Amino acid sequence: MDALDAPGIAVLPARPVAAVLPARAVAAGAAGAEPGGPTAAGPRVPTDEPAPLAALRILADAVAAGHRDPFDPAVPLILAAGPLAGSGAPGTARVAAIGLSPLSGTVGETRAEGPFGAALRAAGASLLVLTGRAARPSILLLHNGSAELRDAAELADAGTVAATDALRSRYGARAGIAVIGPAGWRRARAATILTDRYFPLPRLGFGAILGDRNLAAIVCLPGPPAPAPGAVAPAQYPATPAPVAPAQDPATPASEPATLAPGAVTPAQDPAAAAPGGAAPVAADPAALAAIAARYRAEQPANPLTAWQHEPPGFGVWPYGAEPGYGAHRNFADTATAAGDGLAPDRFLARYRQAAPCPDCPTDCLKVFTPPAGPPVALHQEAVAALGPNLGVEDAGTVLAAVAACLDAGLDPVSVGGTLGCLYEAAERGRLPAGWPPCGFGTDPGPFVAAAARGADEFAAALRGGAARLAARLGVPDAAMTVRGVELPPFDPRIQPGLALAYAAAPTGPRYDAVEHDLDFDPGHGAPHCWPQLRELGLTAPEPAHRLDAARADRTAVLLALWSALDAYGICPYASTPTRPLSLALIGDLVAAGTGYRPDTAALLELGAERLRRQHWINAALGVAEPDRLPYRMHAEPVAAGAHAGAVLDPDRFAAAVARLRTRLGLA
Question: What's the pTM value of the predicted model, to 2 decimals?
Answer without folding.
Answer: 0.89
